[in-house]
Amino acid sequence: MLLHSLELPGIPKVASGKVREIFDLGETLLLVASDRISAFDCILPNAIPRKGDVLTGLSAFWFEKFDFLPNQIVATDFAQFPEILRPFESELKGRSMLVKKATPLPVECVVRGYLAGSGWKEYQTSKSICSLSLPEGMQQAQQLPQTIFTPSTKAASGHDENISWEHCVKILGPDVAKTVRDYAIRLYETGRAYAEEKGIIIADTKFEFGIWNGQVILIDECLTPDSSRFWPKTDYQLGISPPSFDKQFVRDYLETLTWDKTPPAPSLPESVIDRTSAKYQEAFQRLTGAPLNS
Fold first, then answer.
1. Does 276 reside within a domain?
2. Domain identity same for 252 and 113
3. Are strands 152-153 and 128-129 parallel, antiparallel or unpaired?
4. What number of helices (H) and strands (E) belong to the chain?
5. Of the four, 21, 126, 144, 293, which is 20 to 30 A from 150 by CA?
């Protein structure tokens, strides 16, 4: 079923983000990935078939693979969900997870390995990304000399804002800031190496972390087509923005319009919706080695 929004009668909803609905189950939270899609920090009126299943299934795959740090997962199998959720199986199965009640850190942990997107735009004017100087003469989509960590604020609405490392330290404290930076870079580089074996280049991504029982844990989503830039390795070349398995396809379409990137967002044509759904599902299958469960 296509899920754009969700209410679970009798179960309090604590948040509704650009994609996820969050419900309070007492000792845990229920995280539900809808089929909504956002671009340029605006939620689009259309939903993308199977998108929520891809985000949940792929995040669960990475959470299990990255066993070198603790994460939010309590359960991803609907059979292990509490009895109170049984009436909502059709809405929840495959797109939901039970997670720990962590306190989210107020910083987005953005990690970049290639010169793309807003980083490429900034480089063209300043030869830097987020005040980090880069060599002269780099091309679009070129791999960076080393992985860089470019944190940003987490805006409740509107655009996130890039911040300096010094500002990140001021917000999080030196110990936590160093921990999330080191974890984020290790997660990205480990995931990138695995994905390349599957024919996908992960150009950049973002992670979120929280505090649970006094320790830093990985929360939200992990290396999905929503949070990352995925390029097919066979089509990669310097000097162009490669075709992608992520929502860059949607952004590219929106860039052809006269829309000013403020709400309300325009509707997507069926061809873009269908192609986006196919790209998300192909990314899932390539990375996990299995088709998305029906």
1. no
2. yes
3. unpaired
4. 7, 16
5. 21
Q: How wide is the angle at C-alpha 105 spanned by C-alphas 104 and 111, nearest 5°?
A: 115
Q: Is 30 helix (H, G, I), strand (E, B) or coil?
A: strand
Q: What is the pLDDT of residues 68-127, one digit of tens each?
A: 999 999 999 999 999 999 999 999 999 999 999 999 999 999 999 999 988 999 999 999
- Domain assignment present for residue 288? The answer is no
Report the number of distinct structural domains present in the chain: 2
Q: Which domain holds residue 93?
A: 13-101
Q: What is the pLDDT of residues 167-217, one digit of tens each?
A: 999 999 999 999 999 999 999 999 999 999 999 999 999 999 999 999 999
**Distance in angstroms (rounded) separating the CA atoms of residues 83 and 79:** 9
Q: Using alpha carbons, select from 16, 11, 34, 79 the residue that is nearest to residue 226.
A: 34
Instruction: Write the single-letter amino acid at 279.
Output: K
End-to-end distance of the chain based on CA atoms, in angstroms?
10
Give yes or no for a contact between 279 and 249, defined as CB atoms under 8 angstroms apart.
Answer: yes
CA distance 97 to 111: 25
- Residue 34: count of CB within 10 angstroms of its CB: 24
Q: Is residue 284 a part of any domain in this protein?
A: no
How far apart CA 87 and CA 269 sit, in angstroms, is 34
Contact in structure between 171 and 154 (CB atoms under 8 Å): no
Residue the block writes with tokens 């010094």: 166
- Alpha carbons within 13 angstroms on the beta-carbon side of residue 218 total 26
At 274, is the secondary structure helix, strand, or coil? Answer: helix
Q: Which of 277, 235, 210 is nearest to 51 (CA)?
A: 277
What residues contact 236, with CB distance under 8 A and at least 6 apart? 141, 201, 242
